[in-house]
Amino acid sequence: MVETFTSSFGPLEITPVGRPRDFRWSADFWTGAGVTLVTGHHHAECSMRATADTLKYVSIIVPRIGGVDVAFSRRTVEGRLGELVLTNNIDPERVILRGSPVALDGLLFDHAIFAHAVAAIFEIPVNGTLDLSPVLPVSTSAGRVIGTLAQTMIEGMRNDGPLLCCPVAMTNLASTFADLVIRLVPHRLSPLLDKKTFMIAPRHVRGAINFMHANIHRPITIPMVSESVGVSVRALEVGFRAFRETTPGAYLRMIRLKAARADLLDRSNRQSVRDICLKWGFFHFGRFSILYRATYGETPSDTKRRSARM
């Protein structure tokens, strides 16, 4: 069983807690559109830990019987019945399943799904993890909305359910789920959501953004952008830092990166990854790949291969 999980999710260590007389566990999983449903039953408490070189994913765990503890370096978070546990497989030191027996459902989202949602919402390059608040009670309004959608996906995927026959629906549900989590669950970028709601960018910043989008296919530079809105490069940079939490150059790279990703996801686009890279103004393929992976959690080649299978 451990070998099966390792082949699907990367190296994984599962050990019993204490010395149970009879340690037995079983699990089933189903995968579609970058999301995996894992249903587990454990007859004794156990500990799970991802080891080196593990694929990145974001997990939403729904305890059915017993509980789930997530142990970080300096604290342990407890998740119980009536709560959703949100984590990834990189930050925690281990996940501990509490109770005898334990039953749970878990939705594992490819990191790329959440990375794409973050890039779409904030329109800035974002590296590192979100540091999501790890426990969400389903009694809250956000918990009810996210929990209901999670349950819909769980029931639609379990036992090769109907959602697995609808890849477009699965893709849309996964994107919607990631968008809801980012907007409704507290994390390290949440303050930026408040700024986007209440701070209206000045005219020269809005004009620069419009100019960039209208001329994204051209080899424009930041001095050209500043000249188009009648301000200095310095004034433009100050405006972007104050109202977009980024620089004009980083913003331009981000919208070009989004355009490149759209081409990579287009099954009808026969251009090579390198040609797409050059098309959108990235002249150093290695740097493009590093930036792309940091933003979307996968390489450009991975995206193109995945779109070909959809």
Describe this structure in words.
By secondary structure, this protein is of the alpha+beta class. It folds into two domains: 2-188, Sandwich (Jelly Rolls); 194-309, Homeodomain-like (Arc Repressor Mutant, subunit A). It is built from twelve helices and nine strands. The chain has helices at residues 2-9, 111-122, 141-157, 167-184, 190-198, 203-214, 222-229, 233-244, 248-265, 273-279, 285-296, 300-309, and strands at residues 12-16, 25-32, 35-42, 46-50, 57-71, 76-79, 83-88, 94-110, 135-137. Strands 1, 2, 3, 4, 5, 6, 7, 8 and 9 form a nine-stranded antiparallel beta sheet that branches. Helix 6 (203-214) crosses helix 7. The longest helix has 18 residues, at 167-184. The chain is elongated.
How are the SSEs ordered, and which strands pair?
Blueprint: H1 2-9, E1 12-16, E2 25-32, E3 35-42, E4 46-50, E5 57-71, E6 76-79, E7 83-88, E8 94-110, H2 111-122, E9 135-137, H3 141-157, H4 167-184, H5 190-198, H6 203-214, H7 222-229, H8 233-244, H9 248-265, H10 273-279, H11 285-296, H12 300-309
Antiparallel strand pairs: 1-4, 2-3, 3-8, 4-8, 5-6, 5-7, 5-8, 7-9
CATH superfamily of the largest domain: Jelly Rolls
The CATH class assignment of the largest domain is Mainly Beta
Broad structural category: alpha+beta
Report mean pLDDT, rounded to a whole number.
84
Low-confidence stretches: none
- Indicate the CATH architecture of the largest domain: Sandwich
| Number of helical stretches of at least 4 residues | 12
- Total beta strand runs: 9
User: How many discrete structural domains?
Assistant: 2
How far the N terminus sits from the C terminus, by CA atoms, comes to 28 Å
CATH topology of the largest domain: Jelly Rolls
